[in-house]
């Protein structure tokens, strides 16, 4: 069907399905949606759209070469399908509310690169849910340098990315559990763009699904669109729903997140928090016993819970040590699991565990034994013998996912994902614990109540310094290593610029999940770790209405008590009132993007001034909360 034929055909004729034998695709498929008129070249998968508002046509994907001959093409105004004979890929595309949905099906093991987007003069910026979210102008010198230095695929917290075009943000969305697609920022002639590479695997005949949506003219529109898609698919679980299932989840509202060490595990620490007026807190701790030191015992747990706090130990199901050499109760699994339950690589060798200790533990090996051996259930019972009402389960809601080549318990990455979901659901729904985990990737949001790590952006710049500066961060769990959490860190300017520069940050994760999962930064990057970022972090976290994360002993709390209380007195009342609301609006109020505003439901508006000068009535480096109901205002000016 040529372009000329399409223009000349009548309404009745155009409604018919066209079938052609073999095309080298000089033709164009035209599909009409509520957002615009899409044109698709089936041989190159180049796509353009004329938006319904009559704006300029946008080139959405760049087709630089023909993928294959186009065979068995069928098309109507609302859908089309065809076949790539040499690639053995069946392609289907259909319209939806916001644009197009593509489905690629193949049983041939191969890598398939598409879509490529953002490599046109119309493209202005990349929108990346890398952690909380990034806004990256596509000619920015700093980011050109960063992506050249860190060329690996992105670690996306949610399965989409977007391109800013004139008057429109266009989103490219993957299936929720697609672990076979890599998204990568590339560059050509000083311009950043994005490319997906999907891996069709012989052992998993899973389709490759891509939505292309015109989402609106706000930088958070792609996140709003993804949230709406989750709701439409009944995949969104709100905090209100989680509270109905477990009333203790409500205790997260207004709570500071505190990891305690040393004399932070003493009753005197709880007395101190009480004297400071801290009514809402989540206390996490390392349950490994300390000889001749402070340990969280039943009295500590009981007192914390009587104060209205959540309290729970650190745990993980990701690693195992030889029981004869284990120095950590979280890694002490029954001896019949070692080394039988270790993950094996493609060569049959044991996959060495975190910090080069023990092994990574196969979630499939645990699942297969659970009905008879109850390893996970017994492990949890032992960890919670003191009566805790919460648990922090490391790794499970984070990357990487594993493949296991063991003959006894083979496992794909998708199976690993589903196994993790199953055991997290057991903890949160069956055991009724307020569950937190690392990072909080989108697929885990329905089963956890909080995460440590979603606030961090561009983790590619974090992991190298985490590995290289071993004296500054804890690697492994010997108690002496954990003291590193208290050491202030003079972070490189590059890391600070990539992670905490407000010009480049967007609250994408909060737009989707603010009223579903409570987010924080990583515990390794607590409020006192990098003094140079303390002020900007406090502004960003309050702007996004998420809690700070503290690593404290009583001695440290005594030193910072005034700032600690000042921060709490601003944040806690706000979060108690807005923590169950969606983040509905975000805008830059100045051209330099240093004054930003968020709104949560119809309750509160927050305006942060990251600049060095007064903005209206808001002082430099201050944030103002304005209640929509009565117009009352409060301010907070965090200290450097």
Kindly list the characteristics that best describe this protein.
globular, 7-stranded parallel beta sheet, disordered N terminus, 16 helices, alpha+beta, 24% helix, 27% strand, 640 residues, 10-stranded antiparallel beta sheet
Overview of this protein structure:
The chain is of the alpha+beta class and 640 residues long. Strands 1-6-7-8-9-17-14-13-11-12 form a 10-stranded antiparallel sheet, with helices on one face. A 7-stranded parallel sheet has the order 25-24-23-20-19-18-26. The chain is globular and about 75 Å long. It starts with a helix and ends with a strand.
Percent of residues in beta strands:
25-35%
| Mean pLDDT, all residues | 93
Shape label: globular
- Strand line-up in the sheet with most strands: 1-6-7-8-9-17-14-13-11-12
Q: What's the gyration radius in Å?
A: 26 Å
- The count of β-strands is 31
Uncertain stretches of 5 or more adjacent residues: 1-25
Helix-strand makeup class:
alpha+beta
Estimate the helix proportion, in percent. 10-25%
Largest sheet: 10 strands, antiparallel
Note the gap between the termini.
65 Å
- What is the number of helical segments per DSSP (H or I, 4+ residues)? 16
